[in-house]
Amino acid sequence: MSARQIPACAEGLQLRLRLVTPEDAAYLHGLRTDPRHNTHLSPVSGTVADQRAWIERYKRREAEGLEAYYIIERRDGTHCGTVRLYDIHGDRFTWGSWILDANKPPKAALESAILSFDIAFGPLGLRTASIDARRQNETALRFYRRFGATETGTDDLNVYFTYTRDRFIADRPTHLAVVQSAACTA
């Protein structure tokens, strides 16, 4: 079986996703070590050089079709976050590493989710996403529930969800209408 071809980018109304490169190491390291953004993330240690080395190792997994790590940018090229599709096996994957910074436009959370699920459920041909969120991350938990993800369980640390291609296809027009409305008023 040949490796999945990971799309290099996706364009939306206000945002663009593009695959991370080693040159993004300082941005990623800054996001992951910033207390405004890392409260609900796995702890990060190391330097920008360590982040660059991690990205270089990740690029091999990307080439094998096992993972896709995207920088979220405004259409003018300003970085405003990250999102990752990983643990890609069969028709399943994990959706995460989702961070949005202060540069995000209105409804960036919704638009970045739409774009990333468009990739996963479109060209990658995947059918089911697994999502986990820290129990204390009330903003993310509200988002996943409104977005249509199904809660599948909890443990001491996380709440677990699944999100299917069929649910996304059914909900996508409604989600997109919200993004379009925000883009028109921005």
Give short descriptive properties of this protein.
186 residues; alpha+beta; Aminopeptidase; eight-stranded mixed sheet; 5 helices; 8 strands; globular
Helix content: 25-40%
Query: Which CATH-level-2 architecture?
Result: 3-Layer(aba) Sandwich
Which structural class is indicated by helix and strand composition? alpha+beta
- Outline the low-pLDDT stretches: none
Task: Please report the first level of CATH classification, the CATH class.
Answer: Alpha Beta
Average pLDDT, all residues: 92
Task: Figure out the total of helices.
Answer: 5
Short description:
With 186 residues, the chain is α+β, with helices and mostly antiparallel strands. It is built from 5 helices and 8 strands, in the order ββααβββαβαββα.
Describe what you observe in this structure:
The chain is an alpha+beta fold. The chain has one domain (9-185): Gcn5-related N-acetyltransferase (GNAT) (Aminopeptidase, 3-Layer(aba) Sandwich), CATH 3.40.630. The chain contains 5 helices and 8 strands, in the order ββααβββαβαββα. The chain has helices at residues 25-33, 48-63, 108-121, 138-147, 165-185, and strands spanning 9-11, 15-19, 68-74, 79-89, 92-100, 128-134, 150-154, 158-164. Helix 1 (25-33) packs across helix 2 (48-63). The radius of gyration is 16 Å and the shape is globular. The model has no long low-confidence stretch (mean pLDDT 92).
